[in-house]
Write a structure and sequence with these properties.
The chain is an alpha/beta fold. It has 14 helices and twelve strands. The chain has a six-stranded parallel β-sheet, with helices on both faces. A six-stranded parallel β-sheet has the order 9-8-7-10-11-12, sandwiched between helices. β10, α10 and β11 form a beta-alpha-beta unit. α1 crosses α14. The chain starts with a strand and ends in a 14-residue tail after the last helix. The C terminus is likely disordered.
Length: about 350
Amino acid sequence: MRLCLIGDFSGTPDEGMKNVSRTTYSLLSRRHDVIAVTSRDILKPQIQARIRAFNPQIIHYLHGPTIKSLILLKYLKMLTSEAGHSVKTVVSATRPYFSKITERFVPYLKPDLVLTQSEKFEKFFKANGCAVTFFPNGVDLSKFAPADADEKATLRKQLNLPEDKKIVLHVGHIKANRKLNFFMDVQKKDGVQVVVAGGTHEKADKDLKNELVKNNIIVVHEYLKDISVLYKAADLYVFPIEDGITDMPDSYNQIGAIDLPLSILEAMGCNLPVITTRFGALPRLFNPQDGFVFAQRKGLIMDLIQAMPLNKDAGTRNMVEPLDWNQVIEGLERRYRMLIKPSDIGFGYSIQPQ
């Protein structure tokens, strides 16, 4: 297949959507003819000429969407479609945002297929006349793998982390919308050390970062080539971001994470116990068990952190094994083929909510 992927392929892959963009390109390009276009470059004439000359069968916008991305997809479809050849457009609804005004235009700009994750946004796109199918993010299970006690102790020494405390980890941008203030109370608990790893893709909130440090939280704010070492050194992963109750956030700055957070999948790949809110796509994919717990109230999360036992098989890696990136990309290929030749294959996908 000839595939044009639009995403964020710039800089270092220390942010969720960059990770998705690069991994999708890397795996698809092994078997197909693929070009990768950074979204901010689409309006450059030379980039448009390149896309048109490539003559793609599929144009896939890998993140968003916003009204801007839908407009760009519609434009690229018109630019590349010729007599007898209609390009198919796909958008991944990893964390959509439309204002009350712009969401009215979605029915007129709808792509050929929307890959959704959370049920909330699946309902939104269906209501606006879009063809929709569930599609998750993936995780590299060869990289994010469990560490035994000896490896964990060695990594803690290398990372200057305490060996005698329960290390509670959170990975994500150091911004107010990540609800990181929550961890200041966690740090006050006896025998607990909070570690927050912030990506370098977006500027950190300096005041928030300083406040975290003042509260004795270890803040790792640098690019780590292999961030899996932090997961392997930790005891527990906590995700405190809550979904809003409305269909759309009031502003884009309210959005704290993509609908299926990669950090949670990575923690599960390392077989860490996970305490999380019922965020995005998580409830449709995972049923709670001893090592994977949904919690809504702040106090309940705090109690669970203290009660979660150490050195016990959390069982979370087994839960995430169907989401290995290789399997996920095979599912994406099936969807592409369905769009190109609808009679050949249906939208069936092997990964089902547990």
